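The records we work with from here on pair a chain with its fold. Taken together, the C-alpha cells spell out the fold as the letters spell out the chain. To see the layout at work, look at the sequence and C-alpha cells printed below.
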Amino acid sequence: MADVLHYTIEICTVLEYLAGRQPPVVHNDIKPGNIIVDQHTGRAVLVDFGTAKTRYLASAGDNSYGTVGYAAPELYRGQSEPRSDVYSLAATAYHLLTDDDPRDHPNQYPQLDALSPDLADILRAALAEDVAQRPTAAEFRQHVEAYQAGQTGPLKAWLPRWRCC
C-alpha cells in the first residue's frame, strides 16, 4: 500500500505539471501499464503519450479514448481535461490497492469499501462521474499525502464539496 500511494503522489506531480502547460496536456490513457518505475532512481514515470493531447487539439474534434475501465466517463463523449487523468490515476490506484481490475466492470469500484474509509473517500472523490466534482491533480496529491501522513481529519470536511450538486 505504501508503494502504491507513493507512486500515486509522484504521478500526481507529473499531472500537475501537464495541467499547468499552456494549453494543458491531457495524457488520456493512464493505467498500470503506462506507469513504470525507473530501476535507477526508483521514481514512477508516466509513459506512452500516444493518446495525449492538448486542450486545443481536443476541441478540434479529435476523439481518443483511453483504456476501458480506466478511462474517465467524459472521454467517451470526446471530451477530456486535466481532471480526466485524475480519474484514470485513481482507477489505477484502486486496481493496485485492491487487486480488482476495473476493466472487468468499467466505472464500478466494488472493492472500495475493502480499503480504509478515509482512503476510500479520497478515491471515491477522484472517481466521481462528474468531472466538475473531481479534485485537481494537486488536490488529489494533497489528500493522498495527508492520508499517508495519518492526517485524515480535515479531509472528510473537504471531500463533500466534490460530491454535492
Q: What stands out?
A: The mean pLDDT is 86. The longest strand covers residues 35-37. The longest helix spans residues 2-19. The chain has one domain: 2-159.
